[in-house]
Amino acid sequence: MQRLLSGSARLLPLGLRCEQAVSSGIVKAPSNFTTRGYAAVATDSSDRQHGWQLGAAAAVALATAGLGSWLLLDPQTSHCEEVQLASAGQTKKRKAPLPEIHAEDVAAHNNKERGVWVTYKDGVYDVTDFLEMHPGGASRLMLAAGGAIDPFWAMYQQHNQEEIKSLLEGYRIGSLVGGQDMSQQVADPYSNEPKRHPALVVRSQKPFNAETPAELLTGKLYTPNDLFYVRNHLPVPAVDPAAYTLRVEGEGLRTIELSLKDLRTKFKRHTISATLQCAGNRRTEMSSLKDIKGTVWAAGAIGNAEWSGVNLKDVLEYAGLDERSEAEAEHVQFEGLDSDMEGVCYGASIPIEEAVYKGADVLLAYEMNGRPLSKDHGFPVRVIAPGIVGARNVKWLSRIITSKEESQSHWQQHDYKSFSPNTDYDNVDWESAPAIQEPNVTSAICEPENNTAVSTSEGTIPVKGFAYSGGGHSVIRVDVSADHGKTWTVAELSSVPAKRSRAWSWTLWQAEVPMPKEHTGSIELICKATDNAYNTQPDSVAGVWNLRGVLNNAWHRVKLQVQEE
């Protein structure tokens, strides 16, 4: 099978690794799986959605290309290119009436000489003129040449927007004979999705992303497994634990493969308490200020759990890591079994010092709150890198690589990064910003919820919430105000005991905030946290707004309606 990958050739083995996982039986493909339109596996990608939403025309281009997730978007597409793409779609004239075209004729138009045609449902589209304008390159678009783009749109549900479909129609040249559909035998890449708890607040179905309801976050220090937020970038892979292997290799290491049994029996079991938080948590507050590309999270894309598994440092030392190899490698890369249509897997990395310093707590976890990992949370093995943003905690772990370079995956290079409020997609330089590792200090009010009615007769307002800081920093104070910051109430804190610089878990807090004497029928509650390095939250979203909507740690605000009694 031909592999078309841009950038460094070192990415090729990573994708092949995923293909091998399917062929070896580790990852199970759906029974009706077909390689028609797919590259190798029936798993795929997701929140590349922000690039998809850069502009409707650019989205059409990418959808027409029908690429794997990290190829689907080119976040560096400029505004000028978007305008050019839109113009291309709008100026292509359609002849009426449209002819009927046989599927065999579409299949024959799979090169520049004869023309490049694709189908969507019963429509036929000539995208030859669009090849050189495609943001991901002509070679990407050629992957769909002569075939249906429906499988790719089935994976990337964000394609199903009317403006995208409208622009695609600008390239239509006909309809398939008899209204037939070339994609009728395509498998649903999301056919292996597990059942989820109905209380989760769903933000997208395919891929599945859901957060914990705010009022359920503060009940206990450990978030119940079924209510823990879910962040998937690709379809959930079906993994056979009996066939599962973890490959460990890289700078200064001997290559080894470990089974699930090996991990459980050859290494000491470790347990830590750690909070995971999506970098985009509280993104919705940023989107209210200015348009944001990404999953629209409220404050529930966070959770705390007790994780058990193998210390990553122990595994690396078992593979030969020593002081010399530590000096040679600067990063530890992780690759999951979740994959796009080209067999390119989700990947991320952390600095190697996070994994090997004395007392390092990075785990290869196989249990969550005393139970085996669920499918959504990375069964059978996932990375738990405490104090580091959720995107680096790779699920369904299949490969570990020590390297001089960080992961070259899209999610490391072009996704989880933050920029100045003045930077937007028409002037962003992705290489100018480092990949996010440690989250900043943040807090949120969970109770009462926004627009709750409160009575003046009570005198005080009971308020509950969470606070968290990355990098092992503990939260030392949470301040709450009901009068726009004129006065503050110091909250009572509750947290898991931890050593200095190893406070991996969040802090839950509660406060009785005096009812302000002066109000206009509504009250705005505000909270802010301070950690043990005396980092504290900024007061305004405007100062931390960024095009990806990540790391929003402005003061959290909740409005209440006042009932006079």
UniProtKB/TrEMBL annotation:
- Kindly list the GO molecular function terms attached to this UniProt entry: heme binding; molybdenum ion binding; molybdopterin cofactor binding; sulfite oxidase activity
Ranges where the Cytochrome b5 heme-binding domain occurs = 98-177
Q: What is its EC number?
A: 1.8.3.1
SUPFAM superfamilies hit by this protein: Cytochrome b5-like heme/steroid binding domain, E set domains, Oxidoreductase molybdopterin-binding domain
Species source reads Apatococcus lobatus
For this UniProt record, give its keywords in alphabetical order, as a comma-separated list.
Heme, Iron, Metal-binding, Mitochondrion, Molybdenum, Oxidoreductase
Q: Keyword Zinc, does the record have it? A: no
Q: Name one Pfam family in it.
A: Mo-co_dimer
**This chain belongs to which protein, by name?**
sulfite oxidase
For this protein, the record's InterPro entries field holds:
Cyt_B5-like_heme/steroid-bd, Cyt_B5-like_heme/steroid_sf, Cyt_B5_heme-BS, Ig_E-set, MoCF_OxRdtse_dimer, Mopterin_OxRdtase_euk, OxRdtase_Mopterin-bd_dom, OxRdtase_Mopterin-bd_sf
What does the entry give for GO biological process?
A: sulfur compound metabolic process
Gene3D superfamilies with a match to the protein in the record: 2.60.40.650, Cytochrome b5-like heme/steroid binding domain (3.10.120.10), Oxidoreductase, molybdopterin-binding domain (3.90.420.10)
Enzyme group, top EC level?
oxidoreductase
From the UniProt record, list the coiled-coil ranges: none
The compartments listed are: Mitochondrion intermembrane space
Subunit annotation = Homodimer.
User: What superkingdom heads the lineage?
Assistant: Eukaryota
This protein's GO cellular component annotations are: mitochondrial intermembrane space
- Indicate yes or no for the key word Mitochondrion: yes
Cofactor names from the entry are: Mo-molybdopterin; heme b
Q: Describe which pathway this protein belongs to, using the record's wording.
A: Energy metabolism; sulfur metabolism
